[in-house]
Predict the 3D structure of the following.
Amino acid sequence: MFKLFLSLLISFVSLSASAQMLVVDRAPTGSTQPLGLSTKTDNFLADDFQVGAAKEDWVIDHIRLWILPDSSTSATALGDIFKQIALYGGIAPDLPPPGPPPVECDCHNLPPLKTAALQPGSDATGTPEVVITKQPDGVWQLDFTELKWSLPGGTPIQFAVVAAPRAGINPSSGHLWYYSAQPAAPGDHLRIFSSVGKVQGPYPEGGNARVNVQVWAHLLARISIRPAGQKLKVVLWSEPLFETAQVDTTTLRFGPSNASPDSAPGAAPDSPRTEDVAEKGKSGVAAFFRPSESGLGPRSVNACLTGKRTDGAPFEACDLLPKPKADPAGK
């Protein structure tokens, strides 16, 4: 249980957009359909996705969804309908068993991952991490970026968008908006949650549909950074499901973890040659970098190695920089 909780903590790493991989692609097609709950229920509807393999550690960087306005609303901006919008997510909880309700527990509730306020007359949220774009067909595209959401691979992950309506918004149909969805095989992916994120049960009305969603993510790996004369030696360690033999060493780049997405991706190894290392039963690959070429300054405290596996999956690993040796002369 504790391990699952830790896997949902927000990661501190920051990866450039060029190093993120589209790992779930359920983008809308010509066969889309609206999917949603009545606002009168005070509940929300969630779907799930899955990335990677069991025992892998992934970080979700970006989630994109699409919502459709209710036909009974005439607002031209999303901010005219909602005052706030939020992305919820977590490990998909077990459905409640039949019979009396179980003892209340918050341990499996879906928490909000990213929340943004909306202004009347506008689709803007005031934060670059939540972007709303109205499409020509009237559909709103929602982009939640910089999520830094760490989760386990090979595990169903529940997600939902929850919006708070403005006072006075009460469409006759009882709906405010719908997910864009597609027909799918039957399953219990779609679930109903209470307003506090507690699972209520499956969604019987739409069991043959899936919410349209795209997910960008990257793998987490482990490195050690050590001094090596005028260079830094970066050791990328093998893990049970992250074999360094599967790393494309030509993609390795090293630099500060706080580099902006528009900055250079970091320095390539000083030499294309890498060397095998082993320590306390652990194997890995070592690469050497010049600090001056890696964007590191005198106040840098940590740095990250990015790259890709041979299957194209991007990864990132960060570590503290070694402290400079003290000058014996006190200079």
User: Anything to note?
Assistant: Residues 45 and 143 are 18 Å apart (CA to CA). The helical segments are 2-7. Confidence is low (pLDDT under 50) at residues 1-15, 258-264.
